[in-house]
Amino acid sequence: MIKREKIEEWIKEVESRPSSAPVIVQYIANRLRDLTARNEEILAELIALQSEKRVEEYEKRIAHLEYQLDLIKRQGEGGITSDHPAGSTSSSAAGMMTQNRMDCIMYDGLGRLLRLELFQGALKQASQIAILDADFRNSLEAPRLLAVPPGEELLFVFSSGRIDLTPASALPSSRIIEQTSDPQPGGEKKLPWQVGPVKPHAGERLACVTPVSNLARVDCFIQVSRRGFIKKIRSGMAGSIFENRYIGAGIKKPSDQTFEVILAKNEDQIVLLTSEGYLIALVVKSLPVSIEEVIRLDPSDHLVSCFIYRPEDSILVMTNAGKILHLTSDRIELSGSFKTKGQAVFSGQRRAQGARVVGAALIHENDWGAVCDLNGEIRLHEVQPMLGSGVLAEQSQPIAFTAFNFPQDRG
Amino acid sequence: MAYVRVGLDFGTSNSGIAIYDGEKVRVLPLEPGGILPEVVQTMLYITREHQYSIGQEAVELYYQHNVNRVRRYVKKWAGELDFVGAEMHYVRDIYVLVDELKPGRLIQYLKTALRKTDGAPGYSGTHVFDRYYRTEDLIRIFLIALKKRAEEMLGAEISGATIGRPVKISTSLAQDELAEDTLRSAALGAGFSEVDFEFEPLAAAAFFEKTLSRPKNALVFDFGGGTLDIAILRLGDAHQREVFASNGIDLAGSDFDRMMIEKRLLPSFGSEKIVNMPEIEELIQAVPDWIALPELSTPQNRYQLERAIGQKVAVIELMRLRSLIFNDLAFSFYNNVEAAKIALSTLGAAVIQMDEKDIDLWELTTRFQFEKDIQEYQNRIEKMVLETVGASGLEREQIDVVVKTGGSSNIPIFTQMLNALFGPERVVESNPFSSVVAGLAIRAFEKNH
User: Fold this and answer.
1) I need a surface site. Which of A19, A28, A298, B108 has the fewest CB within 10 A?
2) Complex ipTM, two decimals?
3) Where are the domains of chain A?
4) Helical H segments across B13-53, by residue range
5) Which of B165, B175, B179 is CA-nearest to residue B248?
6) SS3 A31
7) pTM, two decimal places
8) Taking 90 as the threshold, does the pLDDT of residue A312 lie above it?
9) Which fold has domain B3-197?
10) Considering chain A, what is the average pLDDT of its residues?
């Protein structure tokens, strides 16, 4: 509160030094302007409260917070009940089971997908887990692979900017090839693509599938386009995004399309990797909130991988020839500027010979890698032997790759 | 690698290093990104992992780590108390609440701690997480970092330093000697193999002396962040350099900041509305104390404040106080006050403003108010100047030149005081932030040659 004595002291200053008058008037005028603006804001708030608009808004916010709480609870519980044959065991046994289960999901732009339930104990190095009844030789777009815990909530992002949410467990699942029995040569059963509860509308393509149960613990969504444009959206906007079922197309050029949406904290670092083998690492905090180009790509190039990077981990990069590159933190340079070409992960000569990146992921020593090749064959490989040999002996022409570990290995 | 000897100004607010080659003084820009690159804020930030940073880097890390952070208090065993009474003796465990998420501690006014190196009730050191740092350790760490920066800039190893010291670090002679010994040990520990001292006003005089064409009687008025030092000496002839008198007082810029808070800002935190609530009054009275405020963020204090807020007593003011204490805004608050004080040296008015969570502080303060608030200090300083002139054996008219230096010497009321005592034509200003360090570099050179 400004008391009379204080005002008198201001006047005394002006009387003793008239040159102070403009400064004092300026300060008071600025304050008055700020207070007037604030007063208007408070009045607008009051009107919104009186007209109950604000109540509605708060109800929506509460609903969204409850949704996030639900996601966290599901994560904490280890997921939704499994429909694995052993799913009828007691709840503690089911909890244990979800600790060593992951869902491997493969999907394509048409919204077709395949969900395979993986149990840690049943996996073998370089084991074939499925053969998809599809031929990717003539396909222009490679399928995408993703591994998530069973209780995960998935955000489906379409090329139009539309989104949809569904639990991973609601996707139709397919049985993996049993590892215990000896498959008869040529007798393996090819799995067909499945159609899930979330499908693209006419004229749309499925751009990406993002796990979002971590939403309450991050600061933002990062929407990345195939041509290297990025937009950062505050996670506080999640309520309205989910309610409107719309995140935005996230592109500047009509020929472009959303490649990935990932969740990140402000202090995280994000890595983008292109088909022609260029990599850029950026601090999330520095990313733009409007769509901006962060990596300059050749006309023939596009992103093939995008993930949160932690300097204590390393990156496994897989090429179309099955060659494996291991990038440790000393090889990753954090970029301070946008629109650069990024750092090359292999030589120009190999690029000219046709080497392309098909996928990359952050890896730990106990991780598994899932690889799909041109024949639709999906195999699981332990990361350590992969790094040791430097090449994928069992699959000569990989087209998609992801790495994962089981919840109980995460410590 | 070449070896050099430098002048080192270890100031209460700012520090710096300079080198002199016999012709030209070079004050090293040790803070390249700062507004004044030659000036490093005397601040030390120690993280939980015992990593150290100084100057602007320390401040930035502090802000980054602390403002609006989450706290988690845990009960930790601190020791035990023995009760011995009539036919009874029992031991009781003592626990303290420790914020286990606290990422680091920012330590300011290291030099002021030198005044109190004799222990109780002063400041002999502090615990930073699991380690105890003596005053000497804190200063040593600061000097190591400062020396490292200077060596990188010079591309040479610094072998020795002439370090500035106030004329009186403490009023007690024993304590004064102890303070100098502490500073010497810290400097030796920091890797300066040869260390000597020079009074700061004499260093400022040495720098000013370079501008003289003929010998003069000079009064050096060195008014910095922590002390005011006055020296009267004959300058301009290296063979007849004579110190007639010197004096010092532990009063300076930080005291004016505290005065501004006490007189102008405490009502914003409820000082005029809170009555019969001793716990809350104690918190309010701690606001001007830069050491106490950061330590007040305990669960008990939060409980007391929230209870008072719940009782609807001075709600806005106490919410401000709560935010100031619990969002680690103390440092930002003192910076705002200091910035306003500095602005009042050139403007007739300045605003102390903070717009943070639950704090909307706006205080227009004028030079008239400021001068009224520090009038008592001005009287003391004027008396000290006259006493020093008296002790020098010179008459006021025999002082040829009055050299002002140090950040606080820019405060107009003191310039007016010196003008009135000696005449404006005799009062000159030497570089307020660099003249001491430049003079120390000259002294370092002279001692080496």
Assistant:
1) A19
2) 0.75
3) 4-51, 90-409
4) none
5) B165
6) helix
7) 0.57
8) no
9) Nucleotidyltransferase; domain 5 (3.30.420)
10) 85
